[in-house]
UniProtKB/TrEMBL annotation:
Coiled coil: none
Keywords: ATP-binding, Kinase, Nucleotide-binding, Serine/threonine-protein kinase, Transferase
SUPFAM superfamilies: ATPase domain of HSP90 chaperone/DNA topoisomerase II/histidine kinase
Species whose genome carries this gene: Streptomyces violaceochromogenes
One annotated GO molecular function: ATP binding
Protein name: ATP-binding protein
Keyword Ribosomal protein: no
Amino acid sequence: MHEYTSTARVWGLTCPGFPEEVSRARRWTRDILRGSPLADDAELIVSELSANAILHTASGGLGSFHLALAVSPKVVALSVTDEGGTGSAPKVERPSEDAVHGRGLGMVSVIAHRVVVHGSHSGYTVTAELFTDTRPGGHPC
């Protein structure tokens, strides 16, 4: 194989900031990962990250959010980029038992093997990675 050739495949989708677009993001993810044992987890992660972009950033309403999905033999990486507009970066929170919000990114961090947040107040990208080989002694990358 040539040193600059990759077996990874990458897809992208930009969605308007309307709540019904979350189901479109789920369906898109499910269609790309059809037959993969990681499809259900990926669909749940994309649903949560897309909903967070719409509910908690300038992506909601008249804005938009962008999805990227990269698939290689070792990892499925799902990224959602929002339009920012908040004073703080997305983070895993420990809400009180009666809190209505604040559990989603924590759930994503439990399902994914790694979660990374990049960006600034003008827009954040949350990337969740699912490794295909998680057997003891297996090397994810």
